[in-house]
DNA sequence: GCTACATAGTGAAGTCACTTCACGATATGC
DNA sequence: GCATATCGTGAAGTGACTTCACTATGTAGC
């Protein structure tokens, strides 16, 4: 079972790299969950706020599509965020079925803090790299991401 | 809000790299969830099987520690895995409070398939890299993982 | 030996993210 | 004007997790 000849050349070290990738995903996920929890959020709710920060006010339907989840799920997330005063549901100007969701003042404050945290995290992780190193690393990641997406 | 002078030198590109990292974590997670679902599993259950594959039969308590979850949670995961015939709960030889969990024949078959899938995924991702390139990439990942762990 | 205390697993109850299905309210095509 | 698609949400359910309480068993200390 542990023979070196069970696998084609190079598979073992490629598997180690993949293990590292999974490890990274795990650590990163835990990291983010913790950071976000410190501000009274969950990753799902933070993701929603993040979407609003980047793309501005949106319909719930659009939000669902952007997050890749069911519209029903968005309803639930918004209920919580609205109860915390982070988002507001307003009437859509031209479609009375739809709801326009936007960040409240408090929501903007919280997302700004999240962004700040993210930036200092990035600085701590990559701050001492040269622009060249950084670009190389980033390029490698992009290749991997690209291939992963192509794999489906 | 979008001024180039809001942040210290280099922060912007570091943030882009971090974004890539998060993107990678997301894609990788989705990928794994799908692969594992094709075999009738969830990531949590697959993680448990994986632990058993690597470290052999274990106590539920040990399993909980190894997975970083509550013992109670392990009970639930095992209930499902046992119902599917993938693991077996045996009496611990020396401690009558404890339960020894091990893979069944079917469990070994499934984990072998999972490992095969992982290996071919690794091959597809990294197969065309030279050993040198691979080592460089892996080294970069390890640095990042290390720093992330140190960050808590 | 017995008592005191720690440890292994599990029932009960609850949270969070997510889903499907059904339904009422509105928009839209013809 | 009417059929039909679309927007949001109630109801119900799943899976991964948690805490808390409880039973059964191991382990000291005396």
- The number of helical elements of chain A comes to 6
SSE arrangement of chain A, N to C: HHEHHEEHH
Unreliable parts of chain A = none
User: What would you call the quaternary organization?
Assistant: homodimer
Helical content class of chain A:
55-70%
Structural class of chain A: mainly alpha
What structural keywords apply?
3-stranded antiparallel beta sheet; homodimer; Arc Repressor Mutant, subunit A; elongated; 8% strand; 3 strands; mainly alpha; 152 residues; DNA-binding
Polypeptide structure, described:
The structure is a homodimer of 152-residue chains. The first copy, chain A, contains 6 helices and 3 strands. Chain A has helices at residues 11-37, 43-55, 60-67, 71-83, 105-126, 131-150; strands spanning 58-59, 87-91, 99-103. In chain A, helix 3 (60-67) packs across helix 4 (71-83). Chain A is elongated. Chains A and B meet through helix 1, helix 5 and helix 6 of A and helix 1, helix 5 and helix 6 of B. Chain B binds a DNA duplex (30 and 30 nucleotides) through residues 42-45, 59-61, 69-77, 80, 92, 95-99.
Concise synopsis of the structure shown:
The structure is a homodimer of 152-residue chains. In chain A, 68% of the residues lie in helices and 8% in strands. The first copy, chain A, has 152 residues and is mainly α.
